């Protein structure tokens, strides 16, 4: 018996009603065509602050991305008050567009890193894949005051990727949050379209496949390194740290796929390499795939003795995952719970938090509590209509399984 079934059996013998969450729209598509896409969310415990990021685009097309935007949320009088949207004017390079926000907080130095890519002009991803000429740059900005001010952009492309870039048709980070492991290592999830075979003597790419990987730092973000690629085709990804019963750390990767199911992989080297990638049969993808979000959190078993009696989990951490649940189209965003992260069948049925069109999302935990938040693309007719924020608890998830 799984953890989730045991907990629900202790509460009631009939299904709990689906609970409607309060959604707060943070970014809304404008009549002029301006569209906000690619959400990223982080909660900074030091300042009890949410930071919500997105791309501001002149149209919904990827090539029309312009600049990254942000809103700051703080708890006041029992609700979350949000600042007006602001453009991150330093998070860019000349003649490039900023895309794929990926925030991570470094605890020791209390520094917020916002990673992103800068792509030359309006060059599309498909153009780079077709020609084999990468036009993306690996960049970040930092903030020491919870996003109130930002440094100038740092370009890491040469120092971190180096000559390997000639084998990359293009690449990106995230999108969505990065993590800091218990060891202090910072992890930035990423993917590359790797050129496996070229046509000589013209050097056109013949075989190009996407592969997830991690960038990581062991010195509070001063220097960065690049991990090895996940072996099988895997695209946009997020990562989470799993702590087993012996307090050993494992880095979990959950990546987009076009094969009908998500790709999962584990790293025993904290992101330097990933082993045994496989398809997660319980996590479905629409035909072209979609980005999803994952996070880990400390299991609450130590405070719930009655549930501990039927616990089957072999870890000290559980996983949450958000993604559209419809196999045919981007619709019905669900939140899944995994109380046995090493089990291929550990994922619960999803709790649907938005029944209409939905797309990219990002999850965060609100400090060390059992409360979480999700920033998601959603709408009535199209997932491009808005990016909305919802907050919920672990009990919401456990009581609202479909």
TrEMBL record:
<dbReference type="GO" id="GO:0009313">
    <property type="term" value="P:oligosaccharide catabolic process"/>
</dbReference>
<dbReference type="GO" id="GO:0016020">
    <property type="term" value="C:membrane"/>
</dbReference>
<dbReference type="GO" id="GO:0006689">
    <property type="term" value="P:ganglioside catabolic process"/>
</dbReference>
<keyword id="KW-0378">Hydrolase</keyword>
<dbReference type="InterPro" id="IPR011040">
    <property type="entry name" value="Sialidase"/>
</dbReference>
<dbReference type="Pfam" id="PF13088">
    <property type="entry name" value="BNR_2"/>
</dbReference>
<comment type="similarity">
    <text>Belongs to the glycosyl hydrolase 33 family.</text>
</comment>
<keyword id="KW-0119">Carbohydrate metabolism</keyword>
<protein>
    <recommendedName>
        <fullName>exo-alpha-sialidase</fullName>
        <ecNumber>3.2.1.18</ecNumber>
    </recommendedName>
</protein>
<dbReference type="InterPro" id="IPR026856">
    <property type="entry name" value="Sialidase_fam"/>
</dbReference>
<keyword id="KW-0677">Repeat</keyword>
<dbReference type="InterPro" id="IPR036278">
    <property type="entry name" value="Sialidase_sf"/>
</dbReference>
<feature type="domain" description="Sialidase">
    <location>
        <begin position="49"/>
        <end position="368"/>
    </location>
</feature>
<dbReference type="GO" id="GO:0005737">
    <property type="term" value="C:cytoplasm"/>
</dbReference>
<keyword id="KW-0442">Lipid degradation</keyword>
<dbReference type="GO" id="GO:0004308">
    <property type="term" value="F:exo-alpha-sialidase activity"/>
</dbReference>
<keyword id="KW-0326">Glycosidase</keyword>
<keyword id="KW-0443">Lipid metabolism</keyword>
């Amino acid at each position: 018996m799984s953890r989730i079934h045991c907990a629900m059996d202790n509460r009631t013998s009939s299904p709990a009603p689906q609970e409607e969450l309060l959604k707060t729209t943070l970014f809304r598509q404008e009549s002029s065509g301006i569209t906000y896409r690619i959400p990223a969310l982080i909660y900074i415990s030091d300042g009890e602050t949410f930071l919500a990021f997105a791309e501001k685009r002149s149209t919904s097309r990827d090539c029309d991305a312009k600049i990254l935007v942000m809103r700051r949320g703080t708890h006041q009088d029992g609700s979350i008050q949000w600042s007006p949207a602001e453009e991150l004017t330093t998070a860019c390079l000349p003649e490039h567009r900023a895309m794929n926000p990926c925030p991570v907080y470094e605890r020791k130095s209390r520094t917020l890193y916002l990673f992103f890519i800068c792509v030359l002009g309006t060059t599309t991803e498909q153009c780079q894949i077709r020609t084999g000429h990468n036009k993306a740059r690996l960049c970040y900005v930092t903030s020491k005051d919870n996003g109130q001010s930002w440094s100038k952009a740092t370009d890491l492309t040469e120092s971190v990727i180096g000559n390997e870039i000639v084998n990359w048709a293009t690449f990106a980070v995230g999108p969505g949050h990065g993590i800091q492991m218990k060891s202090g290592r910072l992890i930035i999830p990423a993917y590359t379209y790797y050129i496996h075979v070229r046509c000589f003597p013209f050097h056109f790419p013949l075989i190009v496949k996407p592969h997830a990987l991690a960038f990581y730092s062991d010195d509070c973000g001063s220097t960065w390194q690049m991990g090895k690629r996940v072996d099988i085709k895997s695209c946009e990804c997020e990562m989470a740290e799993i702590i087993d019963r012996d307090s050993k750390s494992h880095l979990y990767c959950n990546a987009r796929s076009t094969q009908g199911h998500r790709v999962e992989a584990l790293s025993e080297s904290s992101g330097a390499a990933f082993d045994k990638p496989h398809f997660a049969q319980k996590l479905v993808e629409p035909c072209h795939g979609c980005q999803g979000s994952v996070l880990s959190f400390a299991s609450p078993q130590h405070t719930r003795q009655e549930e501990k009696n039927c616990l089957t989990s072999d870890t000290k951490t559980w996983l949450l995952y958000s993604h559209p649940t419809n196999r045919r189209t981007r619709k019905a965003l669900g939140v899944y719970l995994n109380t046995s992260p090493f089990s291929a069948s550990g994922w619960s049925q999803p709790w649907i938090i938005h029944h209409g069109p939905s797309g990219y999302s990002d999850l965060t935990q609100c400090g060390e509590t059992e409360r979480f938040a999700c920033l998601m693309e959603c709408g009535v007719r199209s997932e491009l209509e808005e990016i909305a924020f919802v907050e919920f608890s672990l009990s919401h998830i456990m009581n609202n399984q479909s």
